[in-house]
Design a protein that fits this description.
Elements lengths: L2 E2 L7 H6 L1 H15 L2 E2 L9 H7 L10 E2 L2 E2 L5 H18 L3 E3 L5 H12 L5 E5 L16 H4 L1 E5 L11 H11 L3 E5 L9 H11 L2 E5 L4 H5 L13 E5 L10 E5 L4 H12 L5 H14 L2 H22 L4 E2 L8 E5 L7 H10 L2 E2 L1 E3 L13 E5 L1 H5 L4 H16 L4 H17 L3 E2 L2
Parallel strand pairs: 1-17, 2-14, 6-7, 6-8, 8-9, 9-10
Antiparallel strand pairs: 3-4, 5-11, 10-11, 12-13, 13-16, 15-16
Bound molecules: pyridoxal-5'-phosphate.
Length: 425
Amino acid sequence: MTIKIDFKSHLENLKNQDQEVYNAVMGEIQRQENTLELIPSENVVTSAVMETQGSVLTNKYSEGYPGKRYYGGNQFIDKTETLAIDRAKKLFRAEHANVQPLSGAVMNIATYFGVLETGDTILGMDLGHGGHLTHGHPITHMAKVFNFVGYKTETDKDGIIDYDKLRAQAIECKPKLLLAGFSAYTKTLDWKKFKEIADEVGAMTMADVSHIGGLIAANVLENPLDHGFDFMTTTTHKTLRGPRGGLILCKEKYAKAIDKSVFPGLQGGPLEHVIAAKAVAFKEADSEEFVTYQKQVLKNAQGLAKGLMENGVTLVTNGTENHMCLLDLRPQDLKGKIVEEVLDEVGICTNKNAIPDDTASPLNPNGLRIGVPVITTRGLNETDCEVIGKLIADVINNIEDETTHKNVSEVVSEICKKYPLYTNE
Ligand SMILES: Cc1ncc(COP(=O)(O)O)c(C=O)c1O
């Protein structure tokens, strides 16, 4: 998919009024065009999503919900928000949807506060094993309010979750909420087992599928709601390929509590231009084209993993079952920071990341996280991804060799030219 931008007229008003911001935006267009973007939490939205987000809807105040607003003049906003809600429910087979969360962090916080009391226990994936900051990192405000307990992955068994151990932990800590979901984990989760364990200990179930929301929407990965989960949260801007924001899906019996928690509990006026863009993205996701895209995402991640592993790079979990790969750089005696920097120089944008039980600083961890949503949107196939895996391996295996860097950089440029991202036509 290429995104149409008429560069002659693009941002003309901005250009005339504010050259500095204009130059920065144009610079970012060039960066995206000339870079292989492998940050697994990013994507590129369609022109329709971008247009909607840049529309006059940004001018409107609409505190409240469709039909129950604290401001007048919301007849059109009610339409777009209702479309977003209905489309989200259909897409994910959910009983209720709240489309207002401003971000992924906010959607999780709103869910916790909506159904839990201060001091309640949340059992979620350990941060050092792939969980997200909002799943209980001590640095967050939530960690002062709720009692977060972390479960780990089995590093000596390809990173699987030992569900017997998880069950024992749940019996011991008696969580009110069992939370499944991750930011850096490459295996599929067994939603059915999570639900069984939660039922046994009387916990509610929540899946934070932010990373794999698009794969679930396209039914290429299983949907936790089909297994009876109470809550499912997802960011809308990752694999789901919508505008930046959050989405909460839940059973009808929690609908009121969740809506109240988002507004007025946590947020003020919703970003209705973003909500309308979410509606557009949900419609796009409910299509054959999107299913084809997500199938290609899975194939491309396999290609990337193959190219890396066949060229001596170690992957946590020995491969991937989703859209991302987590590289363990210890065998090459390297750290994430330097690899991220050198790859950046050759035009490959990646994300240093901790590996399970990492003893190094989070600012310079032992791993690197990469993924394929952006390059798949751009049209690359699994063979291209295998080549990219090899290029990354070449850099890792020759981190100080400038000739290698130059060669890799040339191939990256060729690939970017072959698959243009933004075009005039
Ligand atoms: C699993 C998970 N949950 C929540 C979030 C938070 O999303 P946001 O950055 O929009 O606050 C992320 C973002 O990376 C995530 O990976």
